[in-house]
Amino acid sequence: MKIPGNTFIVTGGASGLGLATCKRLVNLGAQVVLLDFNEENGKSVTAELGPKCTFIQCDVTSTESITAAIEQSEKLHPDNIRGLVNCAGVGGAILTLDRKKRPHDIGMFEHILRINTIGTFDVSRLTSAVIAKLPPLGKRIEGEGGIESGGGERGVIVNVASLAAFEGQDGQAAYAAAKGGVVGMTLPMARDLGRHNIRVMTIAPGSFETPLMTAAAESVQLGIKKGIAFPQEFGQGQEFAHLVTSIIENTYLNGTTIRIDAGARLAKL
């Protein structure tokens, strides 16, 4: 799928990897609908990116809020929403039993799954219903520059997991379960939506330079970097966003999870 002129919804787009994705999509000529719970950050980003980016406040734990946001997106960009990037998420480091042998708070476990797993699926199912109504893009045409046009697809969904889905660390039972759920739904969703010419992919990022990561003690940062093969440094948001747009543009990427981690493996803490 070609990016210029098409509209993409990005959840969690007001900060971190979502923000980097919004910036790259706008720079490549797309229209972006930024969904985020943080109204102040969302409005600040849209002011920076200009008229090609619209902010709509959305709580991904609420089906009502998601439905309203997607309906508003459809009104702003009728017959043009071709993709979704689910960057909204939340972390958590809570031991199953803490040092005083107190059990993990079940409400927090549910909260982490509600945002990362259920929220991702809820936004995906509702957005896919909008995309499925659109006419397919052009056929796959092989030319001198490679495969052109949209391959007959209607749209693409890119979900975000984590290395914790595969190698969860101490205190990541809830987070690993939540992101593992995102990985697990990738192929079934791709099969479900393939009949509607909609692709589904997942990205599992490693350690990226985010405010949370850079706020950690220097010793912690060095320990994380030692587990990276090369380059032994934190990933940049632009590198994540580049992978997102590569997935959008390559019609033959479907139904799988791509790790972007510089060869990192999460070790026991």
- Named CATH architecture: 3-Layer(aba) Sandwich
The CATH fourth-level homologous superfamily: NAD(P)-binding Rossmann-like Domain
Gap from first CA to last CA: 42 Å
Q: What number of structural domains do the residues give?
A: 1
Strand residue percentage: 15-25%
Order of helices and strands: EHEHEHEHEEEHHEHHHE
Q: How many helices does DSSP assign?
A: 9
Overall geometry comes to globular
CATH C-level name:
Alpha Beta
- Alpha-beta classification: alpha/beta
Family: Belongs to the short-chain dehydrogenases/reductases (SDR) family.
GO molecular function, one term: oxidoreductase activity
Keywords: Oxidoreductase
Organism: Cymbomonas tetramitiformis
Q: What does this 3D model show about the protein?
A:
It comes from Cymbomonas tetramitiformis. Keywords: Oxidoreductase. Belongs to the short-chain dehydrogenases/reductases (SDR) family. By secondary structure, the protein is an alpha/beta fold. It has one domain: NAD(P)-binding Rossmann-like Domain (Rossmann fold), CATH 3.40.50. The chain contains 9 helices and 9 strands. The strands form 2 sheets. A 7-stranded parallel beta sheet has the order 3-2-1-4-7-8-9, with helices on both faces. Helix 1 links the parallel strand 1 and strand 2. It is globular, with a radius of gyration of 19 Å. The N and C termini lie far apart (42 Å).
SSE topology:
Elements lengths: L6 E5 L4 H12 L3 E6 L2 H11 L3 E5 L5 H14 L4 E6 L19 H26 L9 E3 L2 E3 L6 E6 L3 H4 L5 H22 L3 E8 L5 H4 L3 H9 L10 H13 L7 E4 L9
Parallel strand pairs: 1-2, 1-4, 2-3, 4-7, 7-8, 8-9
Antiparallel strand pairs: 5-6
Helix pairs in contact: 1-9, 3-4, 4-6
